[in-house]
Amino acid sequence: MESRSAAATVIAYEAARVEWRQHPAYRRTIAQHFVEDVHPMFREMFNSVEQALSKREKKGETPLVDKQVQRMFHNAWSNLEHHHQAEDRLMFPRLREFAPTQLEAFDVLEEDHKRLYPLKDAVLSSLDNSMLSDEDRRRSLSEFIALLMDHLNREEFLVVPMFMNGAW
C-alpha cells in the first residue's frame, strides 16, 4: 500500500512540475530555484548517501565504522538543517501571512523538520554501531529519507503556487 501511495505522489509531483513550468511566473520567482536547484540538491545528497551504503554492502566491506558514509550523511544533514532553519525563521512566517488559510499545513511542515532530528540521530547512531547489521543501517537511513522526500514534495505542493502568485 505504501509503495502505491509513494508512486501516486511521484506521478502527482511530476504532473505538477509540468504545470508549474508552464506558468508565466515560474521562472520569474523563487519557484524555479526551489524546485530545480534547492530541493533536488537535498534529494541527490541523501540518495548519494544511500547509494554509498549500498555500494559498500555489495563489495562485502564491513568496516567497524563507515566513516565515509557518516561524513556524507553529516554534510548533507548540515546543509539541510540550515535550509530548514531559514524556512522556519524567514520563509514560513512570511508565507503564513500570505496564506492564513494554510496555517495547519505550515504547522505540519515545521513538525516534519522536528521529526527529522531523532531520525537523523538514529542514522548516525546506526552508522557508528559496528554491532548493527547492514540491514539495520539501511532501514534507519531509508526511514529518514522517506520522511524527507515526502516532506520536500508536500512543501513544494504548498509553497510553489504561493511563490508564483506573488508571495515571495
Description of the molecule:
With 168 residues, the chain is an all-alpha fold. Helix content is 82%, strand content 0%. The protein contains 5 helices and no strands. The N and C termini lie far apart (37 Å).
Backbone structural class: mainly alpha
Number of strands: 0
Q: How big a fraction of the residues is strand?
A: under 5%
Runs with pLDDT <50, length 5+? none
**Main sheet makeup:** none
Return the CATH topology.
Four Helix Bundle (Hemerythrin (Met), subunit A)
State the domain count.
Answer: 1
Query: What is the H/E order?
Result: HHHHH
Radius of gyration: 18 Å
CATH architecture: Up-down Bundle
In short:
The protein has 168 residues and is mostly helical. The protein is 82% helix and 0% strand.
Write the layout of secondary structure elements.
Blueprint: H1 2-22, H2 30-58, H3 67-98, H4 103-127, H5 134-164
Task: Considering the chains and any ligands shown, give keywords for the structure.
168 residues, mainly alpha, Four Helix Bundle (Hemerythrin (Met), subunit A), single chain
